[in-house]
Design goal:
CATH topology of the largest domain: Recoverin, domain 1
CATH architecture of the largest domain: Orthogonal Bundle
Distance between the termini: 111 Å
Largest sheet: 2 strands, antiparallel
Number of domains: 2
Radius of gyration: 29 Å
Oligomer: single chain
Shape: elongated
Strand content: under 5%
Strand order of the largest sheet: 1-2
CATH superfamily of the largest domain: Cullin, PONY binding domain
Order of helices and strands: HHEHHEHHHEHHEHH
Number of strands: 4
CATH class of the largest domain: Mainly Alpha
Helix content: 55-70%
Structural class: mainly alpha
Length: 232
Amino acid sequence: MPPRKKRRAPAGDDMSAKKSRQDSVFRKHETSQICEEETFSSKRCLEWFYEYAGCDDVVGPEGMEKFCEDIGVEPENVVMLVLAWKLDAQSMGYFTLQEWLRGMGSLQCDSTERLRNSLDYLRSVLNDSTSFKLIYRYAFDFAREKDQRSLDLNTAKCMLGLLLGKTWSLFPVFNQFLEQSKYKVINKDQWCNVLEFSRTINLDLSNYDEDGAWPVLLDEFVEWYKERGASL
């Protein structure tokens, strides 16, 4: 019995198979490109750092100003405080090379565009009460002069306004109290208790316990507020 001839696939089938193989190759190439684009690059992050640091291993005030301009955020914006917290920056107005690489690596940001795309995430961190408390505590050490254990009053008022100004209805009154008070500095215990006070004490101060473990600063604020409450 003569061997049977192999049936040739119609031309259309050949073209279809060829196109399928081409599509498969293209998809693999496209996926490879996407993965390459999405992968964090330490080299790219390093080059990005030196755009602002120049020849130094630290981004200083001038570089920081350009950095803020490039990412479209004012230096006084609270999102810059969240970013500093993410970088675990030790001094206000400065980012060291180590802080930059570690922090930007954790954020997977190696370019201006990537950081811009992460700004909404950084803002959202403030909505988590646990993270907010950590950022609030961090702000004290971040903003104080490193040779001082306390925060000078003007800096404290600015930082309190940044962190509590939009969420604590009594902040304007508390700020007014600080301005006329005898206090020149705020220590860390006072700082931490202001946050606790803002979270737990009613706006009319009805649940404030004068015999509680609050610092004298807050006892004096409550007394001052009650005396002037009607006119504030």
